[in-house]
């Protein structure tokens, strides 16, 4: 049974996939109190809950944090990553609602609708006070041209506005396709009549509009922030509103929420909403449904494509590489168990069809498999890289053309001062994963279950003696694979048995004169 804690107010209809799942128990903040933090597998939040190191330390079993929305600035993603916790979001469920809200804010701002509304409700009729500005023919500056920014551009076109965009990641072809002018930030600031920001809040975008570059703004410009508080510096904004350089501002988001800068909020030319961009029935259902489905998929052991801290790979490709992903874990674990001295370099080399796909996640699964039994914490593809770095293990990957006749081949080499191990493996559709090479020996076995790895001399009778010992200990040998370089030379054997191999059995095997080593292995 998985335990899911919903920490913020999230659409109940959208939670249906989790509420209806037989292997999931959902606890909602304020409604269900019979839960304990240490059992929680998944945490669902909107923007109210701060998922920081302190909260994470109270959730030792946590596997996934889901943000029912886009911005993850309320989640300490790097702390979650270090703990191996996957962070997912719902990237497009609230795009339309936020774009529509932004456009409502723009229209309200240039026509003073909120101020006029208060005026009429106060039994006044001051028509002269609220003369507005047309949108027709004006230039809308959009800073951050992703999902929301581009939806806003479409709406601006319907109002026959010109659109000037700043987004360092915007390609020429996309700008052309959407018929917008792609300019530098300073150019947008100095040419637009209305500027709206739609970037995430990052260390690069905090204070993106600040006291320095606000001097470039046209006199009488309108500014809009429905993305994140702080992208437009609030002190600089207030200063420019006070001088009249900025004619008005529409704010849905604030540096601190609820906002504490009363002078800004109370300013006659500021209109404000309490972070309502995504607050529609539709958006709330969409984001809740999307994350609920993804959390369920993830808890049930399958990969999701909306992860913030794992490479985003399209589902079809993910399904194709999944067997290699599992094989990577097995190879990592095999190398870790076989090498009994420190390893400081791991290289994964891919050949054959697999090189057409994204392999970085497979390499991370190798590293996770390798580290799993060596560190005292959860290791998975999310935190494998940072744990490897902390432990001084460098890792890399290569692609090569020669696949030794296999349609796909994966080779992993683990090197240290006293160790140099190489394993090659393949995955055959309908047959499964096979290890086909170990340290110079060609072999062919399925990497799973209870195994015994033997290094011996290729002499008559060794296998017979070994078989007798297994028989005496009533341990059934399921498969046995032998590899040798030369007749009568060094050889290896890999046996799979039906139950864990006991110590006295192993000790007896080690007494066979032609066996130089025997190691029990446990693979997933
Ligand atoms: N008010 C509200 O309720 C909501 C607010 N948001 C906010 O809106 C933001 C944008 O959402 P989406 O459009 O869905 O995200 P997105 O990821 O599709 O677009 C963000 C764009 O910003 C651009 N960007 C990144 N750094 C930049 C920089 N330094 N300068 C200029 N552009 C930069 C990126 O290239 C990208 O195109 C979210 O990160 C979130 O914080 C999102 C939904 C609701
Ligand atoms: O949960 C909300 O209503 C806020 C939405 C938001 O800001 C986001 O998705 O980034």
Fill in the keyword field for this structure.
524 residues; alpha/beta; Rossmann fold; 60s Ribosomal Protein L30, Chain: A; 4 domains; 7-stranded parallel sheet; 6-stranded mixed sheet; 16 helices; 22 strands; 31% helix; 25% strand; elongated; binds 1,4-dihydronicotinamide adenine dinucleotide; binds 2-oxoglutaric acid
Write a structural description.
A hairpin with a 2-residue loop joins β15 (408-416) and β16 (419-428). The strands form four sheets. Strands 8-7-6-9-10-11-12 form a seven-stranded parallel beta sheet, with helices on both faces. The chain has helices at 16-20, 53-57, 77-82, 95-111, 113-121, 147-158, 172-177, 185-191, 234-243, 262-265, 281-299, 315-338, 360-372, 384-390, 462-472, 503-510, and strands at residues 2-6, 24-28, 42-45, 64-67, 86-89, 139-143, 162-166, 181-182, 194-197, 221-225, 246-251, 270-272, 345-352, 394-400, 408-416, 419-428, 432-438, 441-445, 449-457, 477-484, 490-497, 515-523. α12 packs parallel to α13. The chain has four domains: 2-92 and 282-299, NAD(P)-binding Rossmann-like Domain (Rossmann fold), CATH 3.40.50.720; 95-272, NAD(P)-binding Rossmann-like Domain (Rossmann fold), CATH 3.40.50.720; 318-398, 60s Ribosomal Protein L30, Chain: A (2-Layer Sandwich), CATH 3.30.1330.90; 434-524, Alpha-Beta Plaits (2-Layer Sandwich). It has 16 helices and 22 strands. 40% of the residues are buried. It starts with a strand and ends with a strand. 2-oxoglutaric acid (AKG) binds at residues 46-47, 69-71, 94, 275, 277-279. InterPro entries: ACT-like_dom_sf, ACT_dom, ASB_dom_sf, D-2-hydroxyacid_DH, D-isomer_2_OHA_DH_cat_dom, D-isomer_DH_CS, D-isomer_DH_NAD-bd, NAD(P)-bd_dom_sf.
